[in-house]
Structures
1.
Amino acid sequence: KSLNVPAVKILSEMGIETALSYAKKLGLPLTEKDNNLSLALGGLTEGLTLSELSGAYMALANLGEFSSPSYVSEISLNGTVLYSHTAEKTSVFSPETAYLVGEALSETAKTGTAKKLAALNIPIYAKTGTNSVNGKNLDAYSVAYTSKHTAVCWRGNSDNSALSQTDTGGNFATESLLAVFSELYCRFTPSPIEKPAGILKTKFDLADFENGDLTLAAPNTPVGYFFEEYVSVRNLPSYQTSANFLAPTLDGLTVTSDGNEASVSFFGKKPFVYQIYSVDVFGREELLFEANGQNELQNYAFSIGFLKNYYIKCGFIDYFGVAVWGEPEKIAVYSGGGIFS
């Protein structure tokens, strides 16, 4: 899904002047008239040439190092090199920053607006854009890069007349790049962009994230209850570890008894498993009840046996497939003269 608001918020957070300074290092000829938040969406006074745009994306492909685009790498005649392009490199971003941006753009090429490039089945990174005025598409862009090549496609009319409504960056422009890269890689597959040493894949707790908090997943967090993201070790904030799966706990536990029967209620949470069992005087356990939490109040009633203690515990199957159980809680005991709970 293409969203504009996050880009504007990030630009506002980092500051327009800072963004303009990065643009200058990337060889983008922006002016003071571009000093506004529309910069985040490509709203430029003069615009950019495709060469300038490709140069900026090449810096991401080269892990933060910018060099002016070149269309000729070498000219040779009868085995003699007559010309060899030597690029002057300027460090613009840290390798970690460029890699993280690339990870986001790789998702664009897999499932996002440039998903038509997924048919290539190669490591590729892409961004699309469509300029619309009064509901009419005037410009359609698609940019994509690999570890070897960067390509840009623009579709538009010289008289600035409207394109068809289906002529968007993710449609025909991306199809053009698909044709280009299909030809480039018909005989080999480019290698992925190398992950810098300062990049770490980290697990975050999904439930906390959905509630607006970003916390590290506890080591035992089950599959399906965390998500993984690459982070820069250099800029890693001090995240707290989520308490969700540090130790299984019983919530809302109540026990009632009339001397012969006992009734237990508790709030069963997903993905926890709950067990009620008895232990006789010889230490033998008997499982009476087992159920998965359903994020609702759950109940179980049982008859009190002779000289038996009764316990409830909850646990879950962790990331490694191992059962992790919390401390059992005694809920009833036969004392010979009555029931205590």
2.
Amino acid sequence: MSYPVNIAVDCMGGDDDAFFVLPGLLLTLKKYPNIKLQLYGDEEIIRSRISKYKALEQASQIIHCDTYVKMDEKPSVAIKNGRGKSSIWVAIEALKQGNADFMISAGNTGALMAMATLILKTISKIQRPAIAAIWPTINGETIVLDIGATIGFNKKQLIDFSILGASMAQVILDVKQPTLSLLNIGEEEIKGLDEIKSSHEMLKSTEYFFRYKGFIEGNQIGRGFSDVVVTDGFTGNIALKTAEGTASQISQYFKDSINRSIMAKVGYIFAANAFRSLKEKMNPSRLNGGVFLGLNGIVIKSHGKTDPIGFSSAVDLGIHMHKAALIDKIKSNIKLTEKEVNID
């Protein structure tokens, strides 16, 4: 028997008044008709928007919240003003109480992480949570973390991130023993900060449920060199934004080149299928959704500038993780790792 997946949705977070949320949920509902949706936010606004999506309205419960977190609000201010009453806070509370299987928001990343950590707490033995993203590569997909949860790091956190990322790879990439690399300024063992080098020594000297391949440079991520790439949040976020910017730049180059002459437009017609395939691979909506790993609950962060397809992709990711019992997988791998190495 297939049980419904209960999803807590922050309907107020995101750019452009989050108009993409409800049509995105409708796309997911068509794929997973047995899901149950809890919509958190301003009831009047939600009802005015959902009225044109009858199927979605029937599958949803609207929970009114007195306030919401603004996109530019500092996490400390968001917690002070929204404790117990903002759409993000109340949705996370539903997850903690077992009334939802996962929570999703396209809102303020810092506030979402701060509230999720405060309410859900980190899994035992995990020092800090991380944000993980699925990165498109030549060979398929790679999981990269941390992409912005924390600034500053130590050896313990990089080992934690390795366990978290490899666990996610087992679930999402369906790899029994994922390969893993540390992002560094060079492949040579003498390069990098002391914390990265000491993490490298621990990873290469111990047997884990994943296979450690050593250091990796930024230009190798897109080649699919490893299933998982681990770094600190500061470096990871810069790498992510650089990759997004480069993809946008290349896309603009193509558009400019095609519009430059009649012959270029004719050539595009003959190569249209190839260009469509390239566009699909570079489409950020396809792999939208950062996962907050290391918490006692599944929290998905959608990009704030996404579209309905992108938001639906992020919701689909949460459904996949819930059905694959991601949290149980992480806890199991932590226990497995404890037998081999002291990770405290």
